[in-house]
Amino acid sequence: MTRAVQLVVLLWASTEDAPLRSTLRFFAVPVAAAWLPLIVGALLGGVAQTVLWTVAFLVDIGGSRVASAYRPWPLRSLDHFTERFGLVLIIALGEALIAAGAGPRTTAPNGAGLVAALLGLVTTICLWWLYFDRLAPAARQSVLRVPDERRSSVAGDAYGLAHAPLIIGAIFIALGIEQVLGQLSEEPPHSARLSWPAAAALYGGATLYLLARLVFRRLALRTGRPGQVVAALLPLVLLPIARSLPALAELALLTLFLIAVTWYERRNDRRDPRIAPARPVRP
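Predicted structure:
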């Protein structure tokens, strides 16, 4: 429904803009094609719903990418474009902070629950730092240096393809943090291991976030190192180890890992002249 409203508004706004209207016609094809598996999946439910919704997502994203290759979107304001994507990611990271506040199920959280909330806060700060501190401003400057005729394609690839998994990864991590907090704030506290789905969301979300960050870096800055790929895949290696630990220790292990990755990335970014820290916002 949101996509339908978006297309209607854009078609109405492009009445006197022939190139934009032509782009919208191409863009509407994969969007409409994705509705069929989306609706059928909602009716069937269960495993069929998961499969069909995945197909709908791939058709929407992949088809839109193909359509934009033939009819690129006009990019009139790079600042506005990058700011919108950054704000959506901020909302996703905010889910982890909300989880820290909404997770406790008692009016007086115990000590373990408070420690878990603090770990969730540190984890969220690391995720923010890995994207917004240096990478986001460097990516904007890199896209700005691209020739005008190619800028929309480069920006569409970097932000359109990489930001969706970034957001999904952040939401999965928030879900895992909420599950840890929920267990520790039960009455009496339940400090046993996380379930496989909760642990997979926590550690799989970290891998997805880090890999998507590398894809974004590669598409926007054309840089990347093998060590970054290894670091991004490490949460999957740590997952079986974390599963043998209590819930609080599982979250602590991931938090320590993200702190180490943040330190590693900051150390390497200082050596890259193209990546400068974000400038403070002044009123």
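Summary: The CA atoms of residues 15 and 187 lie 60 Å apart.
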